[in-house]
Amino acid sequence: MFFLKMNEFLILKKKRWICLILFCLANFFTGALYIWSVFSGPLAQKIGLATSTNLTAADISPVFGVATGVTPFLMLAGGYINDKFGPRFVIAAGGLFIGIGYLLCAVSESISMLYIAYGLLVGIGTGMVNGCTINCAVKFFPDKRGFAGGTVTAFLGVGAACLPFVVNWLIREYGISTACTVFGICAGLVIFTCGLLTFKCPDDFALCFTSSARAKVTKGLDVNWLGMIRSPLFIPLYLLFVCGSTMGLMLISSMSGIAEYQIGVGTALAATSVSVISLANTTGRFLSGTVSDMLGRVQTLVLMLSAAVLGFFLLIQSGRGDLTTFMSGIVLVGICYGAFIGTYPSLIADEFGHKHNSVNFSLMMTGYSIGGIGGPILLRLASKEGSYVGAYATCIGLAVVGALCAAAYFYLKRREAKTSR
Q: How many Cβ atoms from other residues are within 10 Å of residue 258's Cβ?
């Protein structure tokens, strides 16, 4: 009996790499959510012609806000289904939502239709796929949680960096309707197929793996979302995530405009700054997972907060024409933001167990929604015309708050260790 169990474990240990590749591929296509700016201009023009109005991309920008706003909540719902039944249904259903959403974008002739097509359907599908793939990867790799979580989240950034070239070409050659149709069919089919090929990670997989993982499970560390919220560690970890998300999303949401107004570059270099921070974000997700496996999760995040503070100081020093200083600053901030997104799936699994990690991490991701709303508001309130010094200084303050949250976490962990002796 033991031999059969060990044999199953060895087979699953090899097959988990196939699941990791499938998770990365699915996340690659969901990265299209973050290239809304590629779709928005042509869609605004198309709807403007249909309604005889002069619409711009700015007029339909709230559609993107709806999509990013619903994503964490669908991660929560999808996470619950994933914990019960596994990733197959969640990823496949998410792929269908995304595919149908883009197909409806192709025939949309009103802004309200766009809210349904892109804001709701694409946002819902993206949340289901992201939450499921990230958390399943962490469950399949109890020995390399940081690496698995960081790699899967990084492919969101890879998709956001690569897909604009494909979509732009489709729009230029065939028009926005055909581009949405082709992309919707391809993305929907790929994600749907990836979902069907995956399977649920057994709850006792970590028990077979490492002594540390076995110790966590036997100590009853697998707590559900209610137990996580009741834990004294929840508040400092949640606030730390809000701080890291707000700083990064503040820049990402308005990167092109900041570059134009602050250092006086043209539209081409402003667009380049968007690519630079996207690549830095992706790099942070890749590197932080592996680094946190060695240094520790929160230790890595504190290091990243220090890098972000240095980055914001460089941005404060950047004046008209200071391109190198400005780019160096946004690289450091982008890496910090990516590190938070890449490290938190494994951090939550470490602290609260892997069994309910889909729901637990998805609940923690509501902090991302706060950052997504708060970052742009912070930028507007703390900035003057052409000057973002106030916003950068506020973000340095947020980094200090994040460091204090990390200190509270370390204090509570030490107290917990003394109590358990």
A: 25
